[in-house]
Amino acid sequence: MSKFAPVRFVDVHLEGQFWRERLDTVLARTIPSQHVQLGRHGILESLTLPNPPPPLRFPRNDHDFTVQVFWDSDVGKWIEAASYALSHRRDADIEAKIEKIVDDLEKAQAPDGYLNCWYLQREPENRWTNMRDNHELYNLGHLIEGGIAYFLATERRRLLDILERYVEHVRATFGPNAGQKRGYCGHQEIELALIRLYHLTGERKHLDLAAYFIDERGRQPHYFDQEAAARGDDPRDFWAKSYEYNQSHRPVREQDKVVGHAVRAMYMYSAMADLAAELHDDSLKRACEVLWADVMSSKIYITSGLGPAAANEGFTEDYDLPNDTAYAETCASVALIFWAQRMLHLDLDGKYADVLEQALFNNALGGLSRDGEHYFYSNPLDSDGRHSRWAWHTCPCCTMNASRLVASVGGYFVSHSDEAIAFHLYGGISTEVALKSGKVGLREVSSYPWSGDIRIEVSPESPAEFALKLRIPGWAHGAKASVNGEPVATELSTVKGYLTVLRRWQAGDVVDLHLPMPAERIYAHPSVRMDIGRVALKRGPLVYCVEETDNPGGPVQRLRLPRQSHVEVRQRGDLFDGVVMLAAEATRLQDDGWGDRLYRTEPPAEDPVKLAALPYYLWNNREKGSMTVWLVEK
Ligand code: FUB
Ligand code: ZN
């Protein structure tokens, strides 16, 4: 297995305009405004265990469920995102806000270490009785990730200490021994958090507990059946009807189809990939590869959205990818990025980085507005104009997934082993990497994703031989590279999506990489019935859409793009601080002369128009209006 590990985001300086702007927006606007929203919606107050508890803000639904059971996770995710922000720039006000939360959690913690504010406040006698639905370990997982991030940013370990006490309580509660529960959480997340805790502390017991939860999942007799019976419920009354919903229908190594709730699935696969790497477990690696192949061959949107259905917030049948009703939750794409990064470090294969990049620049980035204070939860690829960003949500999970992703995005650019450096993403960064041969300064200069012209300055502290691996994205045909002006045999030296330049490097060496970025037409497999006769536009990693704001005159669904029409690339310096748009001659169906008829024998007239397409992630940042990704092609 490859020994590549990512360079941490704190060690990667974002210098390019694209990511600098997103990061500054998240630091200055998203993180503070999210704290305001957590306060406004009663989430911060819930940590103080008000007695008597206030009425529910979100009454229990028909399945007796309220999103308030996972409010602790929203706090954990905010701490994580805010701490990533602190790693970039200390901020006394944000730190005071986190300290207040830590005070509340410290006071709330039960003497035995248990710490779940919902149960402590509202049903203390029922803890650990409904693992299937009530997110107790999911909440802990997000708090752990927050505690780790806060410790790394500030070296303050009070929150981590509180959570480690809680983890000890969990370790005593769950396990194979007499008196322990052989359970696991209905919403995976604790597993990857425990692995991160293991990485931080080096304590093997955290890795073992993560492995226990993964190995136990889906075993018979089924824990969720037993637990339901113990509650006096009939397990058959489970609203989702199948344990595919939470990927506990079979032991994880026997799962070969991606099913159920998309976020749960992606968090679980991320943990499986982590465990495969840590434990050299080929059966887990193989399961991940099979699941990866399944989702990539028939269940992912062109924008890397996952999970078409709102009913289970997840997957349905193969090729079922409706555009206007696409759920494609922002959280699921962020979690796909986690999984893809872990797969990439199991096996340095550009196919994983391609998906990571595709998710990042399209579905995931689309989840956060330009102003940094509005969000998409679901990310349809077609809208009649009614789908709009919101400032907060009854279920705010996606908001902090967007902020924690952007605040730590530097961690996805570069990896290294003892003798090699690998660039996965481009966009203007500088960093320093420690190889066996010594330190190497790296500066990558580009305006990626707008341009594929990339320059990398390599500065070892003393001349040394090592391999520099540059990702050649799957979409880049005819890439060219040179070192100090001397061409490199790019095609010959590219294996599994990475161009390897092995040489004795010295300070001042410069690599130029050219990734051609023409506008491309993309077609879906004919089994995707919704996209038959349609075409999408793409350039580099960016999927484009047509939005009514740029194409006034009625719903954009009436536009038709002739197959022969040349798609031009247009710089627009005046829009969103600079953006590359696409333009093409097209036609628009007219409704003149239809009167009140719904059907007629003559087709509608068409007028010529110039179509303008915008990167998908930027849509709905101006006036409301219709939008579509898949255009009718004629
Ligand atoms: O259940 C916690 C989170 O809320 C899930 O990950 C999202 O899909 C949303 O349902
Ligand atoms: Zn979400």
Written account of the structure:
- This protein is of the alpha+beta class.
- The protein folds into 4 domains: 41-58 and 66-238, no CATH class; 255-409, Glycosyltransferase (Alpha/alpha barrel), CATH 1.50.10; 414-514, Sandwich (Immunoglobulin-like), CATH 2.60.40; 519-633, no CATH class.
- It contains 15 helices and 23 strands.
- The chain has a 7-stranded antiparallel beta sheet with strand order 2-6-7-8-14-10-11. A 6-stranded mixed beta sheet has the order 1-4-5-9-13-12, with no helix packed on it.
- The longest helix is centred in the first third of the chain and has 24 residues, at 17-40.
- Bound molecules: beta-L-arabinofuranose (FUB) and zinc ion.
- Beta-L-arabinofuranose (FUB) is lined by residues 70, 187, 263, 313, 329, 331, 395, 397.
- Beta-L-arabinofuranose binds at residues 70, 187, 263, 313, 329, 331, 395, 397.
Short key terms for the protein model shown above:
about 625 residues, alpha+beta, Immunoglobulin-like, six-stranded mixed beta sheet, globular, binds beta-L-arabinofuranose, binds zinc ion
In short:
It contains 15 helices and 23 strands.
Question: How confident overall, as mean pLDDT?
Answer: 97
Terminus-to-terminus distance: 48 Å
Number of structural units classed as domains: 4
Identify the strand order in the major beta sheet. 2-6-7-8-14-10-11
List cofactors, ions and other ligands.
beta-L-arabinofuranose, zinc ion
Helical segment tally?
A: 15
Proportion of residues in β-strands: 15-25%
The backbone outline, from C-alpha atoms, is globular
Oligomer: single chain
Classify the helix fraction into a percent range.
25-40%
Q: How many E-type strands?
A: 23
Low-confidence stretches are none
Radius of gyration: 25 Å
* Biggest sheet layout: 7 strands, antiparallel
User: Which structural category do the helix and sheet elements fall into?
Assistant: alpha+beta
